[in-house]
Amino acid sequence: MSTQQVANRLVELMRKGDGMTAINELYANNIVSKEMPGYPLGEITSGKEAVTQKSAAWFNNVQEFHSGEISDPQVAGNHFSCTMDFDVTFKDRGRQQMEEVCVYEVKDDKIVNEQFFYEMS
Q1: Which residues are within 8 A (CB) of 96 and not within 5 positions of it... i.e. 6 or more apart?
Q2: Fewer CB in 10 Å around end: N or C, the chain?
């Protein structure tokens, strides 16, 4: 798959609320995921199994999704980005409005790096 095809598929799955399928289908075994400093589950997560566990913990902490929007991807070479905006109530910290920029790197048809930029509240 081209970077554009990977990007389109990720956005398609995320818009359906199927982030775990996105990880299983599109992420490389050696994926590196970077969060903002202070992220409670750790700033850097390496490996598909660890990223799967981190994402599952995040989704399991969601009490209710009130709304969400994901932009179309912007592709440049083997990178793409999109924005994600969510209104979410978490079990442990209540309702939050979240805005983030997500940047991904694709190599050999798989996402090998992801980094998220947002404000920590």
Answers
A1: 87, 88, 89, 90, 121
A2: C
pLDDT tens per residue across all 121 residues of the chain? 899 999 999 999 999 989 999 999 999 999 999 999 888 777 999 999 999 999 999 889 999 999 999 999 999 999 999 999 999 999 998 999 999 999 999 999 999 999 999 986 6
State which CATH number among 1.10.150.20, 3.40.630.30, 3.40.50.300, 3.10.450.50 fits the domain covering 3-117.
Answer: 3.10.450.50
To the nearest 10 degrees (0 to 180), the angle between helices 19-26 and 3-15 is: 160
Which residue is associated with the tokens 């599952």?
A: 56
